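Sync notes, pocket subgroup
Present: LS, DG
LS reminded everyone that the earlier model was apo-only. Rerun requested with glycyl-adenosine-5'-phosphate included. Inputs:
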Amino acid sequence: MTKEQNDRMEKILSLCKRRGLIFQGSEIYGGLAGTWDYGPLGAELKHNVKNLWWKRFVTDRDDMYGIHSAILMNPRVWEASGHVSGFSDPLVECSKCKRRFRADHLENLDKCPECDGNLSGEKQFNMMFKTNIGATEDGESISYLRPETAGGMFVNFKNVLDSFHPKLPFGLAQIGKAFRNEISPGNFLFRSREFEQMEVEYFVSPENWKHAFEEWRGVMIDWMKEIGLKKEHVFEHEIAEKDLAFYSKRTVDFEFKYPFGREELYGLAYRTDYDLVRHSEYSGIDLTYFDEDQKLHFTPHVIEPSLGVDRTILAILSDAYDEEEVEGEMRVVLRLKPIIAPIQVAVLPLMKKDGLAEKAKEITRELKKNLRLMYDESGSIGKRYRRQDEIGTPFAITVDYDTLKDQTVTIRDRDSMKQERIAINTISSYLSEHFQ
Ligand code: GAP
């Protein structure tokens, strides 16, 4: 990472901590590597992103079924999926300092990058977190924290088929936690050991996979645009055949230009009938689909758009973070889209006295019914604007002495910093017009 890239990451991290977006996991105990905690504003941002995804990928469509499956699953699920035998990264260990590295992240495979000690030969390290179910700790009780949410959808394919009788093509979707014992977590939210995924398993007739692949590629591109990622920072990367995951026949990664460089953001994979066939073999349950028209049983094939929630948040913050000089001072501003901003409108009384605070609270109560709002009366008005700029609030309403006389307020645009005077009873329509 160059110094400039590192500085930008540091600035984003420090803003996240300062303004209550994201904190280091278990911070008061010195932290726990690869974990992050979302504070009040970060939780709100994450919630908005997940809600929007659910709307676009599930409820806006009539061919999608949302589910929420258990994180702990029968260990046979992960034997069938191939994760027990194949979900590993190459690991090397330094004989001197005992640090462990991912072999594919190192340029020199002989010497330790930290202390120059000798590195061991490469071995495979399985990334699933093991745990024991129940009071005994023997081989029989072993289970795993799921390494992807996908498993829950394959295992519930038959349940949804039997209860809703959907016709192909249709898909299952879920949002939830996934866990991976990453050898080297890092780059803030980019690679953590506990993270969230938003995944779709879309079931199609084998001959239709290419069409569905293109359709979902388009949905993902629209999604990235809607959440405000800059087009010039998103790249499609066709994964070479030799590098495909064990379950995939074709994968396109969407890469993003993070402050530390271009890396994977999302994946779109053609998983063939691999999962349903394997789960059928391992469970002994028929997981075929009956096509009424052709009077034919067959195993559907799968297209999988897989999106990491935390990488989404990191990409959003990377593109939204901006600095500019205003009247000789540095202004930090998060240019978040109103649809995902933690706070959409701030209401600020110019003074606490003379009935201004009461009036501002009255406006807050009314607007809160439909918008994400923050009331703030502490500090100078300039400082309050800056605070809202830093957390990405698109609009700030100021209640002043004229408000009491003529029922108007000023409304300030975060990006242009321009202010307009509008009537209180037009605030809602003004905002919905400007939220487009
Ligand atoms: N079901 C397919 C699957 O899990 P993946 O490429 O291993 O595929 C999908 O993961 C997405 O999950 C990635 O594109 C990324 O957004 C996110 N992801 C994967 N590992 C992650 C990690 N250690 N930390 C944060 N996000 C991660």
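DG: The mean pLDDT is 95.
LS: The first helix runs from residue 3 to 18.
Action: DG to write up.
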